[in-house]
Amino acid sequence: xxxxxxxxxxxxxxxxxxxxxxxxxxxxxxxxxxxxxxxxxxxxxxxxxxxxxxxxxxxxxxxxxxxxxxxxxxxxxxxxxxxxxxxxxxxxxxxxxxxxxxxxxxxxxxxxxxxxxxxxxxxxxxxxxxxxxxxxxxxxxxxxxxxxxxxxxxxxxxxxxxxxxxxxxxxxxxxxxxxxxxxxxxxxxxxxxxxxxxxxxxxxxxxxxxxxxxxxxxxxxxxxxxxxxxxxxxxxxxxxxxxxxxxxxxxxxxx
Length: 255
Ligand code: KIV
Hints:
Layout: H1 4-8, E1 16-20, H2 24-32, E2 38-41, H3 45-48, H4 60-73, E3 78-82, H5 91-105, E4 109-113, H6 119-127, E5 132-137, H7 143-146, H8 155-170, E6 175-179, H9 183-192, E7 197-200, E8 208-211, H10 213-216, H11 233-246
Parallel strand pairs: 1-2, 1-8, 2-3, 3-4, 4-5, 5-6, 6-7, 7-8
Helix pairs in contact: 2-4, 4-5, 5-6, 8-9
């Protein structure tokens, strides 16, 4: 079983590799590579699996059901549950939600979007014994306000993101995701924090990288701009379905 200490000790040693997985089958394949340090059951499943416009409409119970299946598949990686919109905006709601998540799907840690505004809540969750991964920069749960654009381009916004990352570290989080953060700012944050930074669309200098599995295998069509897919699984599924449909036999022989 991987611990928080295992993950933190990778800072400065090698890149920390993180991928999302939302369901048992995919999580099993990802985990069996033995090359992925952290598997995130991300609220991005709402867009990727369910075709919703944002991450914000996903019910907590749907994420918990998916995470239960992922938990059964993951034997090597550190498993993080992404707290969805509306489940951690007050201290009481946050603690109740985290207790429910831990009881019902047993992740190794939870992820919370937000910086300074979440500091007290992160502290309380950590004090309860549940490790927290922070998430600053572009916050998909706040996309109605920010849009999906690169963060940290102005002096003021760079200062705020830097302070957010510091606040997350000081609250006791074991790592922090930097999403769509301007590259030099991501570098400065990475050099200033003791905990690992995990980058997505934030350049080369973070301690780790995270991606959505369906994006890197070419299942998300079209792939997001910041992603280079390593395969075209959508095309391969399409071709397999066509072959199945055109195959004259009704059943595959068991012999
Ligand atoms: O929900 C998600 O998949 C995420 C990562 C992309 C960081 O939050």
